[in-house]
Structure prediction request, 315 residues.
Amino acid sequence: MKEGHLPVLVEEVITMLAPTPGSLQIDATVGGGGHTERILEATNPDGRLLGLDADGAAIARVDARLRPRYGDRLVLRRANFRELQTVAPEAGFGAVDGMLFDLGLSSFQLGDAERGFGFRTGGPLDMRFDTTRGVPAAELLATLDRIELSALFKRYGEEPQANRIANAIVAARSTAPITTAEELAGLIERVAPGNPRVRRRIHPATRVFQALRIAVNAELDALQEALAGAVDLLRPGGRLVVLSYHSLEDRIVKRFFASERRGCVCPPEIPVCVCGHNPRLRLVTRPSLAPTVEEIAANPRARSARLRAAERLAA
Ligand SMILES: C[S@@+](CC[C@H](N)C(=O)[O-])C[C@H]1O[C@@H](n2cnc3c(N)ncnc32)[C@H](O)[C@@H]1O
Prediction:
């Protein structure tokens, strides 16, 4: 796609998925549809793709943009990817050749003032991918106590100034609630401005925003559940490709791939395997792929991307 969201590591995704004409593919995070479009092109003339997104606006946008070209080869569902194991078979995608997860948020969401993902958007601090469910970030900021806020910023943002920021939030909200992304970003800039050299590249509120977004969308739990379901849906030889953007996500993917490759899930203190779990995946990327400096220069959002791919083994 030419504007909006530039798909990350797109050539590498296509190489790793290796989609062929006539194949069935799932894009679990359609976003702006950039990867979806390339996968559909690569499966011409008759491959089919199921695209999911928790965000109804993303589904509507991709439907309007790609439906005229691909017709019923493209099947779209607004759904959380943690529901993959139910949604995919219902849509006729119970056994597929490839599956992509491109985690996190899209540039459309980041730039949408009504969503509260961006530091400078004046709109409400919401941060939900699916605005019809769950609790907006502003509500978490208003209701969690100082210790809970600090723990959240440490756990999901690895924020070294978590205590200081949590204290400042609790002090500020005793006067007036923090309701916009801009207010929260401004408060963090004041109380934890960080190193001026780093600040030029990375906004001091980055880690807190990441932590809130992960909590609001239960992102790590959703990823864990979805990966387990994804392997069940892959045909032997089918490929699973995951793009992650921070170490918490990447660690989940790495550990999941490692455990599915190893097979046995018995605790280490048990000397002989009793679980009977067989290896289900073979690693295709080892250890992982990262974008080139040229890609990062053209698309700064790609900066922290890591791609991992694995292939389903025969049962
Ligand atoms: C990085 S964007 C995907 C961009 C897309 N690959 C492209 O080329 O345009 C991530 C998308 O995943 C969606 N998303 C994040 N977590 C999700 C979840 N648990 N279930 C479904 N969609 C999710 C977000 O709403 C967002 O639109």
In short: The first helix runs from residue 10 to 17. Residues 37 and 66 are 7 Å apart (CA to CA). The mean pLDDT is 94.
